[in-house]
Design a protein that fits this description.
globular, 4-stranded antiparallel sheet, 36% helix
Length: 67
Amino acid sequence: MSKLVFDVPDMSCEHCVRKITSALEVVGFRDFHVSLESKTVSLETEVPERIMAILEKTGYPASIRGK
């Protein structure tokens, strides 16, 4: 698995952090970090498209940092 960082530019408050955290936990992710300061989500995954789809469905479109 690769550790990836997803940029989430629309994340602007603690409510956003809680909403993203909850969405990732509901689908089974446990080891991740959501940073409001850097507007990122970091986690290990082999399927980045799945993470991007979860974030978009939650209302926070994301892109993979560095791509």
